[in-house]
Design goal:
It is a single chain. By secondary structure, the protein is of the alpha+beta class. 46% of the residues lie in helices and 16% in strands. It contains 19 helices and 19 strands. β7 and β8 form a beta hairpin. α12 (336-344) packs across α13 (348-382) and α16 (494-508) packs parallel to α19. Residues 249-293 form a coiled coil. Belongs to the plasmid mobilization pre family. InterPro entries: DUF3991, Mob_Pre.
Length: 600
């Protein structure tokens, strides 16, 4: 199970409460279930013998301006821990045990969190190692920095919804500090409560097995053999009832565990979405232009009967737009920068400098971003979109490229000719093999180039203007041209996609019975997710390269209907070459056998 962060806050309203708490945490009195052979550690505060009560009094006297109110919380006690799964992952049930490295990391992260959040207001923190699971008791004097008065409510929240929100944010903060250790935040709003020690032992003592042994009918009889005893109690109605109860209990515990897992997953998704919303709100604020009314005010214009007047201007402001009705002006525009340029009679750079002087650097940046955003939108709407121009075909070089694909890459000649006839593969003036890339509607948006001239030519790249996010090298085999694609096989390069298809063809002896698409995907960012979600069967065939394992796993996360298929060789083309070599060896062996038989 996942390890969860634990944080609770208690109020200590009197110095008697403070002293009583210290007796427990400093082990000044006997503590049930505490192992006296194990030593607790003080994480914050000295071991000089000063009583906790005196530490709290000294802090209050040196910091607060007034005497504490009668109902004031004098000290706040924070309990920090993590569920047993973190401290002893192999067997959480082993109470009183922990892995030393994990305990040290937990203690260090918790101490850092306390100091970062409360500084010298945290007068003491004790790490308890003598109970079932390591935990920390920290004492905070809740002083408000602004009012210099005690205020537990201001620091930790009080009763009601506002207090719950503050406590929830505090738990968020602590969970974030422990996240690098693999400890997660519990489910927000959970109604789960802390089980006290006495309640725990009561629950243990009422287990069904205790009831079994207290029932005399189910106890073994004098001189009764084990075999007879087992047979007798198995036929007893009460024993069957207990068996059913235990089975029901196990079933409910399993259901509870699954529900908790689903709740944690939902909570993590909610937190992720909440973070995205906050980031979007921040970005939206940063993208929003300055209010034109504020700019007009700074420009020295006066608001009179719906218009901003002054310096020979009569300006009406409507949202992000303005219009000057002064007879000598009659000019309209939009945005803070345009308004400054119009009223000040200055250029763009001077307008930015003016805004920076009046609204600060952040304000000038907001105005500049809004101005650029509007200009970009105008350009996108009016400027024609660039069109991809494929490399010019050079037919004189095709024989060399064709020979490269057949002889050096082992691709059957009829396959090469088929792709060439479809315009998907051809040669350019540099004797590169050109693999045409299309969007899923068939429009040509790019090309992948593979060098073939000379020995050991390793050149590969994309033709200028290729739209990599919306074009792929792909082709389909099997079924009919207008059939729905039932299988998509994703490979890392055009040659690998062709090789994978030809391996299937050579092994099967025919094209696949159903429509199958072979697609070259060189990066997870270019995955055509929306279209692939509709394909029932997907093979992630990125070869046998460890560098692509992470990308393959990511595809599985995005497309649950997919499965990974690794090549036996380094990649599918090498496997195709190896398979072709085996076929030729078998053919030569058969020819030799036939020749030997004829000679006989």
């Amino acid at each position: 199970m996942v390890a969860l962060a634990i944080l609770r806050v208690e109020k200590l309203k009197s110095f008697g409460n403070v002293g009583g708490s210290e007796k427990h945490t400093a082990r000044l009195q006997d503590t049930p279930n505490a192992d006296t052979t194990k030593k607790n550690l003080r994480l914050i505060g000295t071991e000089d013998g000063t009583a906790l009560e005196d530490l709290v009094k000294t802090k209050i006297a040196s910091t607060t301006k007034h005497k504490p109110r009668k109902d004031a919380v004098l000290c706040s006690e924070i309990f920090l821990s993590a569920s047993p799964e973190y401290f002893r992952p192999d067997d959480p049930s082993l109470a009183g045990e922990w892995e030393q490295d994990r305990m040290v990391l937990f203690a260090g992260a918790s101490r850092t969190w306390l100091l970062n959040n409360y500084g010298d207001k945290c007068v003491r923190a004790e790490l308890h190692l003598d109970e079932a699971t390591p935990h920390i008791h920290a004492y905070i004097v809740p002083i408000n920095d602004k009012t210099k008065q005690l205020s537990h409510k201001e620091m930790f929240g009080g009763d009601g919804r506002v207090g719950s929100i503050k406590l929830s944010k505090l738990q968020d903060s602590y969970a974030s500090a422990l996240a690098p250790l693999g400890i997660e935040r519990g489910v927000k709003g959970s109604k789960a409560t802390h089980t006290k020690v006495k309640e725990y032992y009561q629950a243990v003592n009422s287990e069904p097995l205790t009831n079994v042994w207290s029932n005399k009918k189910l106890a073994p009889q004098p001189l009764e053999s084990a075999t007879n005893y087992v047979a007798r109690i198995q036929n007893d109605d009460q024993f069957q009832v207990l068996n059913h109860q235990l089975a029901d209990r196990a079933f409910m515990l399993e259901r509870l565990s699954r529900a908790e897992q689903r709740a944690r997953a939902s909570e993590k998704e909610r937190q992720r979405l909440e973070k995205e919303v906050r980031e979007l709100e921040l970005k939206t604020q940063q993208l929003r232009d300055l209010a034109l009314e504020d700019v007009a005010w700074e420009l020295g214009l006066n608001y009179d009967r719906g218009k901003w007047k002054g310096h020979g201007h009569i300006i009406n402001i409507d949202g992000s737009k303005f219009y000057d009705f002064a007879p000598e002006q009659l000019h309209g525009g939009g945005g803070a920068i345009d308004l400054v340029m119009h009223v000040q009679g200055c250029n763009f750079r001077q307008a930015i400098a003016w805004l920076g002087d009046r609204f600060g650097e952040a304000g000038a940046q907001r105005a500049a971003i809004a101005h650029t955003t509007k200009a970009a939108a105008d350009i996108i709407q009016t400027e024609p979109r660039p069109q991809f121009t494929p490399p010019v075909e050079d037919r004189n070089n095709w024989s060399a490229v064709e020979n490269y694909l057949i002889q050096e890459r082992g691709i059957p000649s009829d396959c090469v000719q088929m792709l060439h006839n479809q315009g998907l593969v051809y040669a350019d003036d540099q004797q590169n093999a050109v693999f045409i890339m299309r969007n899923l509607d068939g429009q040509r948006n790019g090309a992948f180039l593979r060098g073939t001239r000379g020995e050991n030519n390793r050149f590969q790249g994309y033709s200028k203007g290729t739209k990599r996010s919306d074009s792929w090298f792909y082709f389909s085999l099997g079924g009919k041209a207008n059939d729905f694609t039932s299988t998509a096989i994703l490979c890392k390069s055009p040659i690998d996609a062709i090789s994978r298809a030809m391996l299937e063809y050579l092994i099967r002896g025919d094209v696949p019975p159903e429509r199958t698409a072979y697609i070259a995907i060189d990066d997870i960012k270019s995955l055509p997710l929306e279209r692939l979600q509709k394909v029932p069967n997907i093979l992630v065939a990125f070869g046998n390269d460890k560098s692509t394992d992470a990308a393959a796993q990511r595809v599985l996360e995005l497309l649950p209907q997919s499965q990974i298929k690794k090549s036996k060789a380094h990649d599918w083309n090498q496997q195709l070459l190896d398979y072709g070599r085996q076929l030729r060896q078998q053919q030569q062996q058969q020819q030799r056998q036939q020749s030997d038989e004829l000679s006989l």
